[in-house]
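Form 12-C: Joint structure prediction
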Amino acid sequence: MVNKVYNNRAWLLVLPMLALVAFSAIIPLMTVVNYSVQDVFDANTRFFTGIEWFERTLNDAGLQAALLRQFAFSFTVLAIQVPLGIGIALLMPKRGWQASAVLILITLPLLIPWNVVGSIWQIFTRGDIGLMGVGLRELGYGYNITRNPVDAWATIVLMDVWHWTPLIALLCYSGLRSIPEAYYQAARIDRASKWAVFRYIQLPKLTNVLVIGVLLRFMHSFMIYAEPFVLTGGGPGSSTTFLSQSLATMAIGQQDLGPSAAFSLIYFLIILLVCWVFYTAIMNMQKDKAERGGV
Amino acid sequence: MAWMVWTLPTAVFFSTIAAILAGMTAWEVISPTVERKGFLPIATTRGDRLFIGLLSAAYIHLIVVGFTDITIWFALALSVVWLLILMRWG
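Section 2 - Result
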């Protein structure tokens, strides 16, 4: 065990960054807190409302529904993308030109900007010219994302899976490549089945990258905005209106700065909690490993 | 500073947070924290416990404000007590 010397003076080196973050994040966040307890009309006209905006936001049926929908969406895409990503990573070629070719092909969706993804799928699913829209209708299914909430949901989930499963696959692929060949040789000597190799060698080695992948995908899907906004506009009705879109409607559409400030803070607290839980989980996993004599 | 539309309660709130952070820094310089395991499922340092305390205080306030008719001062008192318990035995 190496005894590390802790010198807290190193924190001084972080000061320039802290100043930058203060201007870009902390001071604006403080302003949001100030707005959340007032009704601000202009620089001179404002009324103190106290906890009223928070009370109203927390009891707003529309926002509660958007929050539930948001969680449902995040868990659905995670439940599909994580197993699918692992599966793709396992099937990817390990070396040679095929490996490079597959890597490039798989990365392509990740390079497309969010609103372009929305536009692509908007056209893809149109009933008159879109390949998928027309195709499904030809097969006899009355597919319509502007009328049928189930179709809209399925399409958004499918779009997110198409866009982001490659990220999980890439992370898992790099995780799989870091497993030494000796592990597989030992497994062959033991005549371990493919499932046993996956369950006791590959999956444990993937845990770290999977936690990072799940964290990234959760945060990202929890803040999804541009793709459903372009594809369905939150409809039909409000069946695909997620949190960030409700927030944008309140803050920009209706200029309700007080309520949307309160809403942002609640949104921020949820994300902060989830982030902290994931971060703690990752840190504890690494600590456990270090204690077991690993890394 | 006028554009930040300060109010007395939010100014008091942020001053308190700043004072707590300054106090924690001073405490850390005088006697550095030792990571230990209390009733929480993970080993924590003093700063970890403060963070957990403040985050749960935020949720306590949201629950009291949003879903009960109890006064917010009760939430504040409960949060302070919870924070102290957490700092001492967490």
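Section 3 - Comments
Chain B has a mean pLDDT of 90. The helical segments of chain B are 8-30, 46-67, 72-89.
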